[in-house]
Specification:
The complex is a heterodimer. Chain A is 81% helix and 0% strand. By secondary structure, chain A is an all-alpha fold. The radius of gyration of chain B is 19 Å and the shape is globular. Classes of the chains: A mainly alpha, B mainly alpha. At the A-B interface, helix 1, helix 2, helix 4 and helix 5 of A face helix 3, helix 4 and helix 5 of B.
Chain lengths: 134, 151
């Protein structure tokens, strides 16, 4: 159902679009972080090959470019969501889900050591962002 | 193991925290001067690119992306992301004490939760050490921060 005026989408479409925003954002973040993990310390690369060398190293990574593409998809799906779902639900819900999703994805795909401290941080930030946007 | 980042790397994290929120605020201020953009009037976006607030906002967001990528090259995603959330707190505090906007109890609790969340990771290791990490090894000042152990 497409919204017109003050008529918003039903619960299934609402959560499907919010989940799409979060999923594409998590994909973008994980691909970007994975690319930076593979490229290595940018401070070292900049010291060795200058700023242009660092930019070349980043821009020539297909994983990074895919990550940027996912971030762009997330941005446009957020725009689409905002035209169908109330801002006060869409923005905090997608941001909070992104924080939690990133903790899971970083553990599974980036093999990060997401210890108890980081899980607590993800839950606190997730809840904090939700309350802040209320 | 104690977490130690160099002062320069703390500055990069500070840039990650501040540049996104400041950039968003500048863009928002600039776009409020430009007026609403619709699909029928996409040309207005070109007008927006001549607005000094929008231009400064775009430079701030470019700075955010550069510092975010730099931070991701020597720290874990789950270490850097809470820093980006701290930007929300900066904006809320700026709006309270500079723009004198009221902050509800919900928002104060939200601020407190984010500050606690950032505190949890800031005191832990910044990077998970992988055996096949592509760099030649950690920077000397960060060797203590790289650990796979739990806290």
């Amino acid at each position: 159902m497409i919204a017109a005026g003050h008529i918003y989408a039903g619960p299934i479409e609402t959560w499907a679009t919010i989940l799409t925003v979060a999923a594409t954002a998590v994909t973008g973040d994980v691909l970007t972080a994975g690319a930076m993990q593979r490229i290595g310390d940018l401070d070292r690369i900049r010291a060795r090959s200058g700023i242009s060398g660092a930019i070349r190293a980043v821009a020539s990574s297909p994983m990074f470019l895919l990550g940027v593409l996912s971030m762009a998809a997330s941005f446009f799906s957020l725009l689409f969501t905002l035209s169908n779902v109330e801002l006060s639900l869409a923005a905090p819900a997608s941001a909070s889900l992104t924080f939690l999703g990133n903790a899971f994805a970083a553990r599974i795909f980036l093999k990060e050591n997401v210890n108890r401290r980081r899980w607590l941080a993800a839950f606190f930030v997730c809840a904090g962002v939700f309350l802040l946007a209320k | 193991m104690k977490h130690t980042l160099t002062p320069q790397r703390y500055l990069i994290l500070l840039a990650v925290m501040l540049s996104a929120s400041v950039g968003d605020t500048l863009l928002s201020h600039g776009m409020s001067q430009v007026g609403p953009v619709s699909l029928a009037h996409l040309g207005l976006l070109l007008v927006a690119l001549r607005n000094p607030w929008v231009i400064t906002g775009i430079f701030c967001l470019l700075g955010f992306f550069a510092s975010y990528l730099t931070a991701l090259s020597w720290a874990d995603l789950t270490f850097v992301l809470p820093s980006t959330a701290f930007g929300y707190v900066v904006v809320a505090l700026l709006s309270r004490f500079w723009l004198h906007e009221p902050i509800t109890l919900y928002r104060w609790i939200g601020i407190l939760l984010i500050v606690c969340g950032v505190g949890f990771v800031a005191n832990g290791p910044s990077l998970t050490l992988h055996e096949s990490h592509p760099t030649e090894g950690p920077a000397p000042a960060d060797q203590g921060a790289m650990t796979g152990g739990t806290q």
